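Entry 14. Structure prediction run on the chain below.
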Amino acid sequence: MASRRHVFISHHHADDKAVTSLTKMLSRKGYEIRNSSIRAKPANRERLKKGLVADSTIKRLLRMKMSWASTAIVVIGKNTANRPWVGLS
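Output returned:
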């Protein structure tokens, strides 16, 4: 039987493929991952790039998603340190 985990995977959207690979690998190891991280659809990515989403909205969504999860994983890519939401508290 799979071990269910409610996980928030913090990542830059450029690393979405790495997140998918990670969840598949964990699944093969017997974990049922319910990932609550925010994965923006193409239309929303454009809105984010153009600065059309208020910081307060992003912060509210991140807090809500993180509070639901029992585990947090951070995927660190080559541009992670430059992301505005790294270190959000």
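The chain has a mean pLDDT of 80.
Filed with the rest of this week's runs.
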